[in-house]
Amino acid sequence: MMNPIGRAVWYIEMHFGSEISLADVAQASGLSKFHLVRAFGIYAGRSVMRYVRARRLSEAAKRLVMESSGILDVALGAGYNSHEAFTRAFKEQFGITPDQFRRNPSLETILIVEPIKMDNNEKDTSTNLSGPRLIEGDAMLIVGLKKRYDDKTGVQMPSQWQAFQAHIGNIDNQKGDVAFGVLCNSDDDGNIDYITGVEVSRYMDVTKELDGLRIAAQTYAVFRHEGHVAEIGRTWKAIFTDWLPEAEYKPVDAPQLERYGEGFNTKTGIGDIEIWIPIGK
Question: Which PROSITE patterns has this protein been placed in (predicted)?
């Protein structure tokens, strides 16, 4: 069975020469826009629409090398309606304008993005992903640090945890010693909010530095992450590419949680780490 990322890539490769939206790709993949943005970013290292743009412009660059067509013709074939729009996008992608590239047309001078190759029969054996347990999660109030990330800045999330450490245990009405990483509010460009926080019993005098988030009661599929916290991306990837295609439950558009339990050791980065995926029955 082709997984959702494979279906998304297939659709993009068949249609990137025409106008397509994130909603189109999401429908083809079988996921909501929110979950496609998360899954695709984890798998490909870039957002869906950044990949679409990169593929359009990479194929356009190949045409500029191999064909004598005018730049406007190449632009129209890549889905751009004007020379100016194509030039802006091309320079943003490759650091050079199409006219400059045409004077020295060599694919070795720019970074071409080739199609993602998918093997739908091969699973990531480096990640021992056990089947999830289902829980009925109560409504929660989370207070913590919030920052918005894109597919390039997401590597900075660990530094957000470093900044939040001093707040743990010092937030009014904190419940227990469990910390959460909450992913929510993504957009079509792949930007997403990440909140490093703790659960509180009620909001009281949240400072300007901290933000609050109400999470509704929700059913979750809970996966245990084995290994160092720095490798949690492997578990996220396995969830979306291995578990999701065969799951009898569908993920719903609600905050996704990383839960760092009382057994998590902040010094070693190991122990009691779970990923909570909101699902509908």
Answer: HTH_ARAC_FAMILY_1, HTH_ARAC_FAMILY_2
Provide mean pLDDT across the span 183-191.
90
Decide if pLDDT at 162 tops 60. yes
Question: How crowded is residue 205: how many other Cβ atoms within 10 Å of its Cβ?
Answer: 8
Distance CA 138, CA 39 (A): 25
**Collapsing DSSP states into helix, strand and coil, what is residue 117?**
coil
Task: Quickly count: other Cβ atoms within 10 Å of residue 213's Cβ.
Answer: 18
Q: How far apart are CA 177 and CA 180, in angstroms?
A: 10
DSSP 116-150: PP--TT---TTS--PPPEEEEEPPEEEEEEEEEE-
Paired tokens of 153? 């800045």
Q: Are residues 137 and 222 in the same domain?
A: yes
Instruction: Clarify whether residues 191 and 275 are in a common domain.
Output: yes
Pairing of strands 218-225, 250-251: unpaired
3-state helix, strand, coil in the chain (%, to 5): 40, 25, 35
How far are the Cα atoms of 128, 188, 215, 230, 243 from residue 131, in angstroms, in the given order?
10, 30, 24, 21, 8
Angle CA 147–258–29, to nearest 5:
85
Who contacts 257 (Cβ-Cβ below 8 Å, separation ≥6)?
180, 181, 182, 183, 215, 220, 275, 276
Contact 120, 2 (CB under 8 A): yes
Total domain count, the chain: 2
pLDDT of 250: 85
Residue 112: its pLDDT value, please? 94
More confident residue, 176 or 151: 176
Say whether both 18 and 70 belong to one domain: yes
Q: Same domain, yes or no, for 69 and 171?
A: no
Instruction: List, for residues 250-263, the tens digit of each pLDDT value.
Output: 889 999 999 999 99
The model's pLDDT over 82-125, given as tens digits with 9 standing for 90+, comes to: 999 999 999 999 999 999 999 988 999 999 999 988 765 555 55
